[in-house]
Amino acid sequence: MEILIILTILAYMLTTAAYFAYLFLQKNDLQRIGYFILMVGALFHTATIITGFSKSGHLPVSDLRETLSLAAWAIAVMFLVIQHKYNLKILGIFAAPLVTLIMIVVSLLPSAQAEVSKIFKNFWLISHVLAIFIGEASFALAGGVGALYLIQENAIKTKKHRFFFKRLPSLDLLDITGYACIVVGFTRLTLGLITGFVYAHSIWGRFWSWDPKEVWSGITWIFYAILLHERLTVGWRGRKSAIMAIIGFGVLIFTFLGVNLLLEGHHGEFTRF
Q1: Residue 59: left if φ>0, alpha if ψ -120 to 50, beta else—which one?
Q2: Which of 30, 38, 202, 238 has the most Cβ atoms closer than 10 angstroms to its Cβ?
Q3: 124-134 as b/e, with b when 16 or more CB fall inside 10 Å?
Q4: Coil, strand or helix: which one is 121?
């Protein structure tokens, strides 16, 4: 598996280089090369996860190393989908370095062979984890789009049409793409919470136990529910939506890592070193 991880990291590093070259040189061929290499890296990454699954007999999320790897995979896959759907080429300067950084951290972490127990061998766990990770990956990309929106808006308002103004797309495209990421993320997070309730009941005998991870996942869901509600009813578009997406990304990071590392609960099983 280690060789697959190395190949994955190399592919993601080359993708990062290609997208930053595209940022500076604005050659579409560089963006296409970056997209293709990222696709290859995602295939290597998928092979890594499948290999881990076949060896352990369960979804590879038994320690922090495996959990981060799956998170990086979800971001890479969702970026490929969003890029194909909305052709937001410049988003690669956010997605590619992010997955590269996460995978470098993964390579430095020890592989703690968690004792295989029934909590890992459960259909509902697979459904829950995949839905949650795809949702969180979508929210992460929404945060990246939000940052790009604020940069472009500032360039337009100040009339300082410098480096980024010529390289970022229209505010409308950024807003639409960010909104799509949030809708996908919210839908998948909702599905993830529902399957999580079923999983918790099958393992611990109760749907809800006030576990810190459960509480903060609920807070995250409420945060994005408010964002979507205000957008649809009040008209939170553009700047407000971008700022909320960035704040949401911060909440997401704390929910994903901070809760497990700082607070004790059932989900500590999945982020042990």
Answers
A1: beta
A2: 38
A3: bbbbbbbbbbb
A4: coil
- In terms of Cβ atoms closer than 10 Å to its own Cβ (0-12, 13-18, 19+), residue 29 is exposed
Q: Where are the CATH 1.20.120 domain residues in the chain?
A: 1-110
CB of 195 closer than 8 Å to CB of 241: no
CATH number assigned to the domain covering 1-110: 1.20.120
Residue 213: strand, helix, or coil = helix
- Identify the sign of the CA torsion 14, 17, 108, 75: negative
Contact 136, 77 (CB under 8 A): no
Amino acid at 176: I
Rounded to an integer, what distance in angstroms lies between the CA atom of residue 245 and that of residue 140?
8
For the stretch 54-96, pLDDT in tens is 887 777 887 888 889 999 999 999 999 999 999 898 999 999 9
Rounded distance between C-alpha atoms, residue 27 and residue 37, angstroms: 16
Residue 2: partners with Cβ closer than 8 Å, 6 or more residues away: none
Distance CA 60, CA 30 (A): 34
The CA distance from 186 to 229, in Å, is 12
- The C-alpha atoms of residue 156 and residue 235 are separated, in whole angstroms, by 21
d(CA 249, CA 243): 10
Give the separation between CA 191 and CA 131, rounded to whole angstroms. 6
Q: Please give the structure tokens belonging to residue 223.
A: 């945060």
Lowest mean pLDDT across 75-79, 240-244, 251-255: 251-255
